[in-house]
Amino acid sequence: MDPVTAAPSLEVAGLAFAYPDGHQALFGVDMTIGRGERVALLGPNGAGKTTLVLHLNGILTGGAGTVTVAGLPVGKKHMAEIRRRVGIVFQDPDDQLFMPTVREDVAFGPAAAGMRGPELEARVQKALSLVGMAEFADRPPHHLSFGQRRRVAVATVLAMEPEILVLDEPSSNLDPASRRELADILRSLDVTVLMVTHDLPYALELCPRALILSEGVIAADGPTGELLGDEDLMGAHRLELPFGFDPKTVKASR
Ligand SMILES: Nc1ncnc2c1ncn2[C@@H]1O[C@H](COP(=O)(O)OP(=O)(O)OP(=O)(O)O)[C@@H](O)[C@H]1O
């Protein structure tokens, strides 16, 4: 059976948000993402992508509209449950790693949720194995390379066994092999993925569907290959493919 079901994992309706200085970043975002989908969130600098992502687990709140995760409204009442279900991997792994060892960083979330002993250790091992970092458990995160720290940051989020994995620029600063290995990891996971990226070939490789956020609204929603092949649409939203890259020659992901 197709793992993508009609049940929405994430629903955003009429989300509008202005920062305290009055800058309006979102103007009524509507999007629905089904369970098990992998979706790329594209858009030019300043479009509102990070602002939107920060609403998905309640880091930002207080605007108009609603965000619903697996049927639960994002808000104070369900915050612990929402944070367990929606894991965000930030662009800079150093925002996520602050403990003396990799093991402690990965254990942090489940331990804060009350997990202890062998169950906690098994959870940590599983998350580190998923990202190929099991043998680094006793190392200090700041002794690792950037790409290794990005993998550990992904593991800290996977350790919470989220339903929705949100990644902000996951391929940035990765060498080609690390970039491909991270793609393989993401493809192997049984979670809903929303990936913010300026790396359009990566979006095409990994995400069958893409959304274009532009000036605080969803300007397009469709198969990634079709959107990237639409020159007028791309031009209108300041999106450019790398020189010589033809989306039609790349086998889009499924
Ligand atoms: N803390 C803040 N206070 C005021 N305005 C902000 C704040 N953070 C972001 N903005 C503004 O909100 C708008 C959307 O920013 P956001 O970071 O969400 O865009 P983005 O699509 O993620 O951009 P990028 O691709 O450059 O990361 C921008 O105009 C930005 O200047």
Automatic annotation (TrEMBL):
Keyword ATP-binding: yes
Swiss-Prot/TrEMBL keywords: ATP-binding, Cell membrane, Membrane, Nucleotide-binding, Translocase, Transport
Pfam families cross-referenced by the UniProt entry: ABC_tran
Start and end residues of each ABC transporter domain: 10-240
Database matches in SMART domains: AAA (SM00382)
Main location group: membrane
Membrane topology qualifier: Peripheral membrane protein
Membrane keyword on record: yes
A GO molecular-function descriptor: ATP binding
Subcellular location(s) of the protein: Cell membrane
Role this protein plays: Part of an ABC transporter complex. Responsible for energy coupling to the transport system.
Family stated for the protein in its record: Belongs to the ABC transporter superfamily.
Descriptive protein name: ABC transporter ATP-binding protein
Highest classification ranks of the organism: Bacteria, Bacillati, Actinomycetota, Actinomycetes, Kitasatosporales
